[in-house]
Amino acid sequence: MTAAAPVPTLRGTGQPAVHLKDLNMVFRGAQGDTVALQDANLDIGQGEFISLIGPSGCGKTTLLRLMADLITPTGGELLIGGRSPAQARQERAYGYVFQAPALLEWRTVLNNVLLPLDVMAGSQQKMSKAARQARAHEMLRLVGLEGFAGRYPWQLSGGMQQRVSIARALAFDPGLLLMDEPFGALDEITREHLNGELLRLWQETGKTVVFVTHGISEAVFLSTRVVVMTSRPGKIEGVVDIDLPYPRNVETRESPRFFELATRVRELLRRGHGFDADG
Ligand SMILES: Nc1ncnc2c1ncn2[C@@H]1O[C@H](COP(=O)(O)OP(=O)(O)OP(=O)(O)O)[C@@H](O)[C@H]1O
C-alpha cells in the first residue's frame, strides 16, 4: 500500500465530527436500571479513525447507537457535525455497518448496495437511475469488489459479504462511518487483510470512522486514537493516541512502537477491570 499519509486529526475545519459532553444513557428495567454510559466526554475530529474498545457490556454499541439516533440519551450533549443526531440521521450524515453483514440473499451484490439509494429515489432527493448505478459501482470499486456486482451474497465469503455491507453504508457518501465489530466473526488472517483494506479506504475517502472492536491489535493498527471503556457503569477509562506512521502494513504490526501502544491499551483495559496487580 503506497497511499499518501493522511493528516490524522481534524482534516476538515469547523465542528468536530462527533461531540460528547457528559453523555449518559440509563436503561430502565423491571430488574432495575442499567447505566450503560456514564458522563462520557469526547470530541472526534473530522477525518479521525477512532476505535472503541472494552469488555462486554461497557457501552460500546450503546455509544454507536446513540450517535446513529437509534436511541436517545438520558442526559448530556451529543452532536454529530454540530447537528443533533436526529438531524444527522435525516441528512444521512452517517453510514452504519453491523456485526453481521445483513444482506438480502435474493438481491445481487449490486442491488444490495443500491438498496438505500433506491429507497431514496422515492423521496424528494431524486437521483437518476444511471447515477445510482454509477454510485453503487463506485462503492464496490472502493471495497475491491467491482468484479462481483452480479453475484449473490451466498456466493461470497464472510469477508466479502462484510465488504458489501461497507459499500452499502457508503452509498450516500456519508462523512461518518459507524462500524460495530464488522470483522469480529472473521478469521485472523482475513481480518488483518480487511484491516489493511479499511485503512486504504479511509485514506482514500477522508471519512471519519468510529469502530467498535474487542481486538487490541486491530484497534492500534487502524486508529488515530483508541478509546478504552470500562463496564458497570460504562465509562471512558482513557484515550490512547496512536502515533504510528503511515502507510501502516505488516511491518507496522511488528514494530516496537506498535507493541508499546498495544501494551498501553492493555494496561488501561486491565485497570478498568480491576486487574492492576497480575491479572
Ligand atoms: N435496549 C436495552 N435495554 C436494556 N439494557 C440494555 C439495552 N441495550 C444495552 N443494554 C445494557 O447496557 C449495557 C451496555 O451494552 P452494550 O451493548 O452497549 O455493550 P457493549 O460494550 O457493546 O457489549 P458487547 O461487547 O458485548 O457487544 C449492558 O449492560 C447491556 O445489557
From TrEMBL:
Superkingdom of the organism of origin: Bacteria
SMART domains in the record: AAA
InterPro entries hit by this protein: AAA+_ATPase, ABC_transporter-like_ATP-bd, ABC_transporter-like_CS, ABC_transporter_ATP-bind, P-loop_NTPase
Gene Ontology molecular function, alphabetical: ATP binding
Keyword annotations from UniProtKB, A to Z: ATP-binding, Nucleotide-binding, Transport
CDD domains, sorted: ABC_NrtD_SsuB_transporters
Nucleotide-binding is among the record's keywords: yes
Pfam families, per the entry: ABC_tran
All residue ranges annotated as the ABC transporter domain in the record: 18-256
Database matches in PANTHER family: ALIPHATIC SULFONATES IMPORT ATP-BINDING PROTEIN SSUB (PTHR42788:SF13), TAURINE IMPORT ATP-BINDING PROTEIN-RELATED (PTHR42788)
Annotated protein name in UniProt: NitT/TauT family transport system ATP-binding protein
Upper lineage: Bacteria, Thermotogati, Deinococcota, Deinococci, Deinococcales
